[in-house]
Structures are given as structure tokens and as C-alpha cells.
Fold:
Amino acid sequence: MNEQFTLPDGTVVGTGLMLPPPQFKSDLPVYEDSGPMWTWEQIDSVVKAGLADGRKKFDKSLIKNQRNHGSCNGFAGSSAQTRARMRRGLSRVDLSGAYLYSLINGNRDNGSMLDDGMNALMKQGCAEEQYAKWNQIYRSQYDTRAADASAARFKADECYAVGTKQGLFSALAAGFDCVVAVHVESGFNVNRDGVVTEGRGPGNHAVGCDGAIWDEKYGYLTTNYNSWDVVYGIDGRMLCSWEYQYQYTTKYHKFYAIRTTGDDPQGNNPPVP
Amino acid sequence: MRYGAAILSMLVLVSAVYSAPPTVEIPQDQLAPVNGYVIMQPKGNAKEVTYISLSNAYPLPSAILKDPKQFVLSTNGLANGTYSFIAVGSLNDEHTVVPFSILIGGQPNPNPNPNPNPNPNPNPNPQPNPNPSPVSAVGWIIVIEETSTRTPETAKVLSDVKFWESLPVKGWRFYDPSRASEDATKRYFVNMANEKVLKNGGSYPVLMFVDPNGMFVKGVPLPNDTATIRQMVKETFGQ
Structure:
């Protein structure tokens, strides 16, 4: 689905998360089974201390713009991968949301599934932004050989499906980037606290999470970045919660966490004598 | 007649200026590999500089470089040895050829003009420094950590991106030891942690300091606070 949303400045932007078919069964490894989950006390010790706030780690220059295409999943995944690399000490390389989307959209601008985005990030990687501009969402529109060579340098290494509130906040508190589903409808703007309190649908839009905070009024919130430029929300960001959004969308979509990435073989890596 | 001679001499002078071969100077200090690349910016007035390989090592094509005069050679995968090249500088159909070579690995050739000091000082006066200087030039920080067992204490340190970016080091990198066999760099540092830091027991996460050439300097269990790490950087690398 590529349902359209109108930003406060009148710009129309796309969404693009596809509902998995009823018989679909995800084969992704499960985050909650991949290691000991943190207790809520442990999560508190990091999140309530303000140490997991993604807004303090990544500035608005990283916010992207998918414009009117249904490429949200590509943009969320590529942006999460960009951040996951930076967390490991790799240099900032802006990766192409359009490229990732082109790998998983079946040659139609009708959205894509989170599962497919995660698998593509691990298996094929994501090309640098210059190889596939925002509107080059089909493989026939860019130099596939050059873009694929670039993508092979930028792969996610360990990704896991996240299915519970504790798992999601455990991953975010630990410092892992996540990609989640939200449901965009007419009221999907942030309120004066920067929180989105609408969107109780099955999920039609993918966004990234780069951290979590605790708020007395709202409880646990994820720090999200959208792909609708900085016009949306507060500098392109919003805060979401399990109660307002994820408890509905997680029934249909497999969120995922990127625990680590590969090195760029051509990057500025530590020398090996 | 006098004007004619003057014009003729000016033409000769201008012609001489335009026909002078271009200058190309290869900065020798840029011919060493750094982080897997040799990147050299030639000096001189040549409008274009083309590089010809005389060995089995090929620089990146000029057409894909921002500055086509630059020389960029990836040294990953090159065997140790000396690689020879020719730089051809061009200006107004005049050309200058400058050979140069790059040493990969090993030691440079011994100094052909040794200058032994025949007058050693018979009265040395050593003055030991009570504050020993850092043990290494500024190098890298490497953390080996099993991400599946990351604890809150570790997360507080490792997820502070701004802190790591602020360290005055050549670079920093976190590696998860899983599937280390698939990546040579990761494997090298995981083996280093196992052999140098964990040989007598202990477990990840491990913090290591390596010199600019990737050689082990020291390693410890990852401290639980960033202040300790910053202090260790200062002690190790002097900054």
C-alpha cells in the first residue's frame, strides 16, 4: 500500500508498508530468543537515565525524504543501517532508500514488507545514495552493476525480528537500531510533546527507531525518524509508544533490530599488518 | 626595424615559455600506504597527470576521481614488495615523465649513504623522565563484544556515540566475534583479543589499543565508564 499523507506545508508524501499475506510465515531469527532479554529494571537503568535517546546521537542531517513513493521500508532500513554503521565507528555513509526498495518492491510502487527489507539488507546490502536517487525505485532506472557493487560493501550483519514490547525496548536500550511499523492516517501528526497519539491500524508505514526515552506522561516512547524530510514532526522526528501504535501493528508486521553490521571492505578500517 | 626586433624577441620568449615542459613533483611522504590506500597529490604545473603501472598494481582510473591528477592505489591484497609507476605530466602538448615507486610491507631499502657518527659522547648524562611518555603513536581503539549478551553497563559505554567520536584516536571500531572467520579484519582482532587479553581467562567485552599499523599495544576488560577509557587513551596515545 502506498497511502498518501499531507504534511503541514501541503506536501503530499507516500507510505508504503505492505501487509503480509495471511499465509505468510516469517523465518527471521527472533530477537527475544537470541540472547538474554533485559529485565524492565535493566531497561530502566539506561532509558530513564536518558542514555538511549536517539535524538542526542543522530542529528537532523540524517533525515531523508521518500516523497510520494511507497518506499518507506527502503528508507527506514537504509537509514537504520547508516546509523548502525556509525555506532560501530564506521564513517557516515548515506545509503539509498530507493535502492533498497527497488530490491523488494516487485517492480511496482505498491509498498513492501519489513521481512523483505531486512533480508535484503543482510544478503545484498544497500547502495550509497548517489547510485539510486529517491525516484529511482526500479532497477531499470539506475546502473545496477555499479549500485550492486556499492551495496555489497554495506551489509547488515546480525538482524533479528522483534515481537514484544520488552524485546523492542531491550534492543533500543542496548543501542541497536530498529525498523518498525506504524499506521498513518489523517491524524498522524505529532502533538506539542512530539508524540504521535493516533494510528491504531494494522500498519501501513515503516519508520526507524534509534532509541528510547521515558516520559512521565506517556511512559516508554521510542525515538523515531521518519522519511518525510524535516518538515514532518520535530525536525523529521516523532515519538511513538507501544500502546498508541505498536501493539496494533506488531500483530501484522515483523519489526527488526540490527545488532551489528559488516565493515566496508573499501572503508577506513583498522589496519591488519 | 627596431620594433620588428622587439616583437620577434617577444615571440621567441612567449614560445619558449609555452613550450617549456611541465613540472611534476611526487611528494615522497605520500607514498606509504595508510589504511589500505596510497593517496598522493602531485605538485607542479602539469595540467594533467597520467599514471602508468610498471608492476601488477593499478591505481584507480583518473576519470572516477574528484581530482583527476590524484594518484589513488588500493593496497589491499597486494603482496609485499616494491611497485613501480611512471607519472606523465602534460601541459600544452609538452610532457614530463617522473618515475616513482611504492614499498608495500617490509622495510625500506637501507640508506645507501650511511653517516656513522665517529665522535660518540663519552659523558652521557641521562635524565630519566618521571612521567613516562605514551607507549605508542596515536592508533586505534578496538572493542570486541558479543552483542547478544550486551549488558546495561556495556550499553551505557558503547552506545555513547558522541563520546567515541570525540576521542583523539585514528579510529575506533566495535566487532562482534560471531562468524569472525568470514572477515579477515574482524578475525585478526578477535584472535588478538583471545591471545593477548583473554589467554588467562576472562570474557568479552574487551577494549584494545592498537598502534597505527594494527599491532597490539594493550588490552583490558571494557571499563564501565567513559572517563576511564578517556584516561586510558591519554596514557596510551598521549592525547
About this structure: Chain A has one domain: 5-261.
